Amino acid sequence: KSNVTRGCQLFRRTFDAVAASHAHVEKDYGYIDAFTQWLTRTPEFYDVVVTSNMFGDIATDLASVLQGGMGMAASGNIGDDHAFFEPVHGSAPKHAGQNKVNPIASINSVQMMLDWLARRSNDDDLLSVSKILDQSVAEHLKDGSSLTYDLGGTASCTDVGISIANRLAVHLKER
């Protein structure tokens, strides 16, 4: 909201300064209120979104609905030398100890991390494991027999984790 807040004006100036050294990368602008609307209507339009932490947090929570909710959505904060991966939902402390939270967002965060590490180190074996983990999650969801409450099922976190781990083990043995 560089049209209203000073912090966003600084963010915009900094973005423009950094973007100037990456002229080959196409850039576009949008205010968060309009952006959230565009994101839900045409998510395929976006490859990378650069935004402030607060707006990014809100936008990722909203966008998680496009892939099944916050129980499914992984998040990556990626810099030049370091990266940090976590579920969009964070630690979900209100559900601690209940064995009901969907573990797929955490598993997808691990998959995203493996993919980043593999590409960073040019490691084809690690990239293969990343793809196999992604495949195992996709197969689990397609099967649909073991889903947590957020996806309309009654399975526990442990049940879903074991199901995906078993699929992963089978695929890894096939390698």
Shape annotation: globular
Largest sheet: 2 strands, antiparallel
> Into how many domains do the coordinates divide?
2
Radius of gyration: 19 Å
Poorly predicted segments: none
Structural class: mainly alpha
Q: How many H/I helical runs? A: 6
Strand content: 5-15%
Query: What is the ordering of alpha helices and beta strands?
Result: HHHEEHHH
Assembly status: single chain
Terminal Cα span: 49 Å
Protein name: Putative 3-isopropylmalate dehydrogenase
GO molecular function, one term: magnesium ion binding
Pfam family, one: Iso_dh
Keywords: Manganese, Metal-binding, NAD, Oxidoreductase
Short description:
This protein is mostly helical and 175 residues long. Helices cover 53% and strands 6% of the residues.
Q: If you had to describe this structure to a student in words, what would you say it looks like?
A:
By secondary structure, this protein is mostly helical. It has 2 domains: 1-67, no CATH class; 69-175, no CATH class. It contains 6 helices and 2 strands, in the order αααββααα. A two-stranded antiparallel ribbon has the order 1-2. Helix 2 packs parallel to helix 3 (53-64), helix 4 runs antiparallel to helix 5 (124-143) and helix 5 (124-143) crosses helix 6. The longest helix has 20 residues, at 124-143. The mean pLDDT is 92.
